[in-house]
């Protein structure tokens, strides 16, 4: 037995492996089961203590006010316009006096980011203070989001995010005018954008700590009480934008049953989406008795309003890839473009040859395989939105076909405006 154990251990390399095992750090921690109440409570308490500690590391209102007084005290003349300025030397002095919580803000990298065209090499005190404020708000938001991560797994489920946004609405000045009866649609509208762009595989989970994640940054713009009308209209999360989408949905829902049929959806936008494309929407997307509900409609709107974005291209590409092959070939392009040709005939226009359009599409995309266009080809080409518009929307195709005329008209209008100014 001793010899067997000796040779078996040597042959399988067990002795060396046993030593290496001791050097491997533990990387898996089992989650407590539902019946392990004590372990669950311990885990919840440890998460709460961790988040409280992180929260204490942030600047509070009193510390922010003290920082502003220090910055104002160390401003360096002359004033640039109406803005008080500070030099790098004074900036470092403030950093020494502001306390340990502010140390991370007073670095050469931050100063260089905010340095623009001041002839004395100074930065704006207001710009620096706004930078600090936004950083604090950002980290407060991340901590707040973590509190809604009920599972403690580093991601938010749809219900978690809905609860977070619903409780945040009363704290955002830009949403003060929202009626409480509209809260449910607003929450649904906001959540759909997060999941559309941050959960492209539709797992029902989204990570709030992803780099450049909009969940962390979206409340910042809505805290600005002086946000311009143009900024509000272009911001999906603003009240005017949400009301616009809601109004469109109500106008399309002619029978007022809370859902949209294919016929109702066909009137979306300029009412020039092809019937073939709409057929694919109802084939691939979730429907109820042959009609779509508001969540599906919001995904549809997000895809069409953000055609340049990879997530939107992925959504529409899936509809165009009828055979689920992962690429589009000539037959696919022809199938969808025939519907454009039929619409042109209905409007009394001379149909454009598919061969010409096909060649232009392949020239724009320049796919790796000269006979197949993949989703990645569309993304890499930066022409995916144009290709999509050509295939699904008569208005989009017309805009592309007459692009030179439209550019010339824009130039003429600009020239006329310049002459008027003179």
Automatic annotation (TrEMBL):
PROSITE patterns, A to Z: EF_HAND_1
Signal sequence region: none
Record-linked CDD domains: PPP2R3C
Gene Ontology annotations of biological process type: B cell homeostasis; cortical cytoskeleton organization; microtubule cytoskeleton organization; positive regulation of B cell differentiation; regulation of dephosphorylation; T cell homeostasis
Keyword Calcium (UniProt): yes
Molecular function per GO: metal ion binding
Family annotation (InterPro entries): EF-hand-dom_pair, EF_Hand_1_Ca_BS, PPP2R3C
Main location: cytoplasm
Keywords tagged on the record: Calcium, Cytoplasm, Metal-binding
Superkingdom of this protein's organism: Eukaryota
Keyword Metal-binding: yes
PANTHER family: SERINE/THREONINE-PROTEIN PHOSPHATASE 2A REGULATORY SUBUNIT B'' SUBUNIT GAMMA (PTHR12085), SERINE_THREONINE-PROTEIN PHOSPHATASE 2A REGULATORY SUBUNIT B'' SUBUNIT GAMMA (PTHR12085:SF3)
UniProt name for this protein: Serine/threonine-protein phosphatase 2A regulatory subunit B'' subunit gamma
Annotated source species: Monopterus albus
């Amino acid at each position: 037995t001793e010899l067997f154990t000796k040779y078996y251990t040597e042959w399988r390399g067990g002795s060396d492996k046993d030593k290496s095992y001791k050097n491997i750090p533990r990387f898996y921690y089992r989650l407590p089961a539902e019946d392990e109440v004590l372990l669950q409570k311990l885990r919840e308490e440890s998460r709460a203590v961790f988040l409280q500690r992180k929260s204490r590391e942030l600047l509070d209102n009193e510390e922010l006010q003290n920082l502003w007084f220090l910055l104002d005290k160390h401003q360096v003349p002359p004033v640039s316009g109406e803005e008080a300025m500070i030099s790098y030397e004074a900036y470092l002095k403030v950093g020494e006096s502001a306390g340990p919580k502010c140390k991370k803000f007073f670095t050469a990298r931050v100063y260089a980011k905010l340095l623009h065209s001041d002839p004395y090499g100074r930065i704006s005190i207001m710009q620096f203070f706004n930078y600090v404020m936004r950083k604090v708000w950002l980290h407060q938001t991340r901590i707040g989001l973590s509190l809604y991560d009920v599972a403690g797994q580093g991601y938010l489920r749809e219900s978690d995010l809905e609860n977070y946004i619903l409780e945040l609405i009363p704290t955002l000045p830009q949403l003060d005018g929202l009626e409480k009866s509209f809260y449910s649609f607003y929450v649904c509208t906001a959540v759909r954008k997060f999941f559309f762009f941050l959960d492209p595989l539709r797992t029902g989970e989204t990570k709030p700590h992803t780099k450049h994640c909009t969940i962390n940054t979206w409340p910042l713009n809505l805290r600005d009480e002086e946000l311009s009308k143009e900024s509000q209209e272009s911001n999906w999360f603003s009240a005017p934008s949400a009301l616009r989408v809601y109004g469109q949905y109500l106008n399309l829902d002619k029978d007022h049953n809370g859902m949209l049929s294919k016929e109702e959806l066909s009137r979306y936008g300029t009412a020039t989406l092809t019937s073939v494309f709409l057929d694919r929407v109802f084939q691939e997307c979730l429907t109820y008795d042959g009609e779509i509900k508001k969540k599906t409609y919001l995904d549809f709107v997000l895809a069409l309003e953000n055609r340049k974005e990879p997530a939107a291209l992925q959504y529409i590409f899936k509809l165009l890839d009828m055979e689920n092959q992962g690429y589009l070939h000539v037959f696919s392009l022809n199938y969808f473009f025939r519907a454009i040709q039929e619409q042109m005939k209905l409007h009394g226009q001379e149909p454009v040859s598919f061969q010409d359009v096909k060649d232009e599409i392949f020239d724009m995309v320049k796919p790796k395989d000269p006979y197949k266009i993949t989703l990645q080809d569309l993304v890499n080409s930066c022409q995916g939105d144009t290709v999509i518009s050509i295939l699904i929307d008569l208005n989009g195709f017309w805009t592309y076909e007459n692009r030179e005329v439209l550019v010339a008209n824009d130039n003429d209008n600009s020239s006329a405006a310049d002459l008027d100014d003179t």
